[in-house]
Specification:
Helix content: 40-55%
Structural class: alpha/beta
Strand content: 15-25%
Number of helices: 12
CATH superfamily of the largest domain: Spore Coat Polysaccharide Biosynthesis Protein SpsA, Chain A
CATH architecture of the largest domain: Alpha-Beta Complex
Number of strands: 11
Distance between the termini: 37 Å
Oligomer: single chain
CATH topology of the largest domain: Spore Coat Polysaccharide Biosynthesis Protein SpsA, Chain A
Shape: globular
Length: 327
C-alpha cells in the first residue's frame, strides 16, 4: 500500500462504546497540521460500539472482527490496513489533547534514530500517570512485590518497573513506554516486525520495546504532547480474569527473553506475592466485616493467580473465554 497519510491512528475496541466515542471525538474535533486517518479495529463488541462508529464517525475506517482476536493481533490488522508514515496506537480509553499528535510527529521528524515516541499521560483528574518503565528485572519485581517501590517512590534503587521517581517533565529516552499511546515510525515495523500475537493482552508493549532497542531504535518520552488515560477503562472489569492474563503475559515475556532461571525467579516472586496477599486478605476478612467484599476479591484474585502458576489450564480457559465473550 502506498504512503498516503502522515499519521495513521489505530484504536482497538472491545465493548467500550462510550470511551471510544470520547476518544474519536477528541481526535476529530482537533485541528492537525498533518494528514490523519483513523482506523478502529473492533473485537466483536456487543455494546453497540460498531453502530456508534458507523453513525457518528462515518469517515473513520472500521474493521469488524467476528471474534475477540486480542490486542496485539487486532492492532496488527489495523497496521496492515494503514498508510501513514507514522502509526499511532491509541487505547480506546484515551482522550487525545489538542496538539498531541503533531508534537509527537515533530519529534520523529527531527530525530531519525527515534523509532517510538509517547506523550505525557494524565489521569482523569489531570494528575500525572506514570507511563515510563524500566525493563523488568528480578530486582525491580522484588521491590514491587515487597512494597519497597511504593514506600520509596523517589528512589531509583528501589524503583519497580514504573519510573515513579521520574517527574515526566523533560524529553527522555526510556526502556519502555506504556502501550496506551504510542507513535511509531513505520520503518520500525518493517525492520523488527509488528506486535507479537502470542501476547493476547498485556506484555506486548514491553516485548516490542525490547525488540525496538535491540535493533538500535530509540524510544523517547515527549512531555509537550499530552493525553488523558482513563486507566483500566478498556479492561477494568472482570478483575480476576485480567489479573491472571497479566501474570500469564509476564511469565510469557520472561520465557521469551530470559533464561530458565529467570523464569523460575519471576514465578517465585509471584508465588511469594500472592501467598502473602491471600493470607493478609483472609485475616482482614475475619476481623473487618465491612471490608469483607474487598477481601473476598483479593482472595479470589490471589488464589486464581497461584492456581495459574502451577496449572496452565486456567490460563488456557481465560484465553478461550476472551475470544468468545458473553454479553
Amino acid at each position: 500500500m502506498g504512503i498516503a497519510m502522515d499519521i495513521s491512528v489505530i484504536i482497538v475496541n472491545w465493548n467500550t462504546k462510550n470511551l471510544l466515542e470520547q476518544c474519536l471525538e477528541s481526535l476529530t474535533s482537533s485541528l492537525h497540521s498533518r494528514s490523519i486517518e483513523i482506523i478502529v479495529v473492533d473485537n466483536a463488541s456487543s455494546d453497540g460500539s460498531v453502530e456508534m462508529v458507523e453513525h457518528c464517525f462515518p469517515d473513520v475506517k472500521l474493521i469488524r472482527n467476528h471474534e475477540n482476536l486480542g490486542f496485539s493481533k487486532a492492532n496488527n490488522l489495523g497496521i496492515q490496513q494503514s498508510s501513514g508514515r507514522y502509526v499511532s496506537l491509541v487505547n480506546s480509553d484515551v482522550r487525545v489533547l489538542p496538539g498531541c499528535l503533531d508534537a509527537l510527529a515533530d519529534h520523529l521528524d527531527h530525530n531519525s534514530a527515534v523509532g517510538n515516541v509517547g506523550p505525557r499521560v494524565l489521569n482523569s483528574d489531570l494528575t500525572l500517570q506514570s507511563s515510563c518503565r524500566h525493563f523488568p528485572t528480578l530486582w525491580n519485581n522484588i521491590c514491587s512485590a515487597t512494597g519497597l517501590a511504593a514506600a520509596f517512590k523517589s528512589s531509583r534503587f528501589f524503583s519497580g518497573e514504573h519510573m515513579l521517581f521520574f517527574p515526566h517533565d523533560r524529553v527522555m529516552a526510556v526502556d519502555v513506554l506504556v502501550g496506551c499511546f504510542w507513535m511509531v515510525r513505520r520503518d520500525v515495523f518493517r525492520d523488527i516486525g509488528m506486535l507479537d500475537e502470542s501476547f493476547f493482552m498485556y506484555g506486548e508493549d514491553v516485548d516490542w520495546c525490547r525488540r525496538c532497542w535491540n535493533a538500535n531504535w530509540q524510544i523517547v518520552f515527549v512531555p509537550t504532547a499530552q493525553a488523558i488515560h482513563y486507566r483500566g477503562g478498556s479492561s477494568g472489569t472482570q478483575v480476576v480474569r485480567l489479573a491472571v492474563a497479566q501474570q500469564d503475559s509476564i511469565v510469557h515475556y520472561w520465557s521469551k527473553h530470559k533464561s530458565v532461571f529467570g523464569v523460575l525467579g519471576i514465578k517465585a516472586i509471584f508465588l511469594f506475592r500472592h501467598a502473602i496477599r491471600y493470607l493478609l486478605a483472609t485475616l482482614f476478612g475475619l476481623f473487618r466485616s465491612s471490608e469483607s467484599s474487598r477481601s473476598d476479591s483479593r482472595i479470589l484474585t490471589s488464589s486464581a493467580c497461584l492456581h495459574a502458576l502451577f496449572n496452565g489450564s486456567f490460563t488456557n480457559l481465560l484465553a478461550g473465554e476472551a475470544r468468545n465473550p458473553t454479553p
